[in-house]
GTP cyclohydrolase 1 type 2 homolog (Cellulophaga fucicola), 364 residues
Amino acid sequence: MTVKEITNIIEDFAPLNYAEDFDNVGLLVGDATAEVTGVLATLDTLENVVDEAIEKNCNLILSFHPIIFSGLKKITGRNYVERVVLKAIKNDIAIYSMHTALDNSNKGVNAKICEVLDLTNTKILIPQKGTIKKLTTYAPKNEAEQLKEALFIAGAGTIGNYSNCSFTTNGLGSFNPNTNANPTIGKIGETKTEEETQINVTFEKAKESAILKALFKNHSYEEVAYEITTLENTNQNIGMGMVGELENALNEVDFLQEVKNKMNVDCIRHSNLLNKKIKKVAVLGGSGSFAINAAKAVGADIFITADLKYHQFYEAENKLILADIGHFETEQFTKNLLVEILTKKIPNFAISLSESITNPIKYF
């Protein structure tokens, strides 16, 4: 399999256009057409990870965090980023990152945290805006059903647990082909009125390219009339953080101890304990201070995240507990998730879980 064929599997799970605008995702180093000898899944790509890939004969590193985050003007090996890139290029190793695309997936980083903590009834904490689009198009009445079916196959018309969703209306369309046209219906220079069906379907923005391809391929008109609009509807399948519930409520100390045990945490920085049971839990892997108000709004008893600053702990305002368990610690199981995704699709391929230590923070 090629690099592109393998990364397509990841992108089907976590489409890159759901990544945040500030991010740098996709193939960062290497040739997309190269044949892959083995895949190494890691949280970070450091020099020791590249060495591990060489040792295990893996020429594709799937790295959650991008090693190249801002532009490189020189590659001389003067810092750890440049040294990684140089070593990867020298050894023909490709590096691919999905970062916030996987953060925003409802089966991604935060779903994995919820799984480890045994949370149920999970949903997205902060739904991403602008992820639902609507296609309106017009087709001859006798071709409408066939066109709708092609759009459904391409991914249009799925709303929550329902598929093949659409709305149609019948009416009259008119057009007059000029001398450069090659009309399938009507004659050049004559206004034609045709019984048409207006088709309306919604879709997730990651599927736009496939849906337009299906539209043009299956529509009989030379010029296809269509409109695409971005909707304000909330999409609970895409977004940052998750919130879920414990099967049985626990007191605060017992729950924090469970977090330490299940998340392999040496230290938890937290706001005031409130002397109440923990039932609803919000989580956000990585730096999550921007979601404190969202965790309050959903009525979470505790918000587990990382990289909270001193004054941000005041924002708990005795309405919930803020728990900072560490950046690496919140995302540590992400590489396991990457292995799970690929193993389900290509079970007989050489996929390795990185054993390299990449957490830059130590505790004394």
Remarks:
- DSSP finds eleven helices and 15 strands in the chain.
- The chain has a mean pLDDT of 96.
- The longest strand covers residues 192-204.
